[in-house]
Amino acid sequence: MKISVGNLLSAISHLIDIAQGIREHAPKVTYISLQLSNLLGLKPFEKKKIYYAAFFHDIGITVADKKFITSHIDLNLAKNHCLLGYEFLQKLPLDRDVAEFVKYHHEFYNGSGAFGYDHLATPFASQIINLADQIDIALDFSVPYYLQADNIREWVLKKKGVLFNPIIVEAFLELAQKDRFWLDLYNPHLRQIVMALSLEDEVYFDIEQMLKFSEAISLLIDNKSPFTHVHSQELSQTVYTIAKIMGVDSETANKLKIAGYLHDIGKMVVPNEILNKEGKLTKEEFYIIKSHPYYTKLILSQIPAFKDDIANWAGNHHERIDRSGYPEKLGKDELSLLDRIVGICDVYQALIEDRPYRKGLPQTQALGIISDMVKNGLFLEEEFLLLKRAVS
């Protein structure tokens, strides 16, 4: 199995944009950064690293669960999300420069940024991404570009040599003269435009690299709540153990493990205050929680290598054979054994873990509850017996 890193970044950044409530921020910053890189004559390997860093530059905001604009204006919050993004990207099998570029993308030319580093100490790529980031934040996409372009150009020129590198400013001023630049930014299909700009020597992950990537994503997801800090990792190991018990081939077993790591990726759109709420959820909060498997399947289905299996196994983990689950009300005939295995392992893992409203249950009690679910027609005996063998 080969997975395009570009596809992964596009899909994950889409989820980040949904979580932040900002439409296509990551593609816009990536587009501006790549156009600037072209004008500045950067080499292909440098543009490739900027491409990945720009797509993931705000990954730390989702972890920090702060408001988008505030995380860019407040230097402490900016520093925090830069560090969180850096720590996350260091876990991925990408060039180490990508993490460095993200770490310093809120530095300014005169040293007044998040870490206080000036242009001499800040990677040039980070300075490109910073300018692209600031431009997208400054633009009001409810107003036509031709009513704003002059003001944006004047503001950037005013900050030349103060916030922004003069060399990069000159490249932007040249770029900003082109109507196509602005029309592309306003294009509702910008994400596809950016993907078409991806370099010919695209990076692909093999199955082992994808496992590392998925595990890093699972840590990002689970760390949104102190009550779920090992949830996806433990679930992933359990479904993998079941796969081995079943005797499936190695690729299928590893795919199932990836599905376990990524099954809760949709929780990136759920605010922390809901995930960690100690009292009873309101009706609105409950529906927000229930949306997460929808987003899991939506995002994973955008990755061609995941569309026919991993996206379903991960996205169907709250479905039940009696159609009482969510979000699609799928039934016995529509849920595969592997769908149901991820679902029953999710229930088991949730029962044995501490939650804001209760302590984790002993294994025997958890299995007893799931046994009752089987009797009540929520799961089948087949997956329950496999679960018991895996955890005993």
UniProtKB/TrEMBL annotation:
Single GO molecular function: hydrolase activity
Residue ranges constituting the HD-GYP domain according to the UniProt record: 206-392
PROSITE patterns: HD_GYP (PS51832)
SUPFAM superfamilies in the record: HD-domain/PDEase-like
Entry keyword Hydrolase: yes
Keyword tags: Hydrolase
Matches recorded under Pfam families: HD, HD_5
Keyword set includes Hydrolase: yes
PANTHER family hit by this protein: 3'3'-CGAMP-SPECIFIC PHOSPHODIESTERASE 1, CYCLIC DI-GMP PHOSPHODIESTERASE PA4108-RELATED
Protein name per Swiss-Prot or TrEMBL: Metal dependent phosphohydrolase
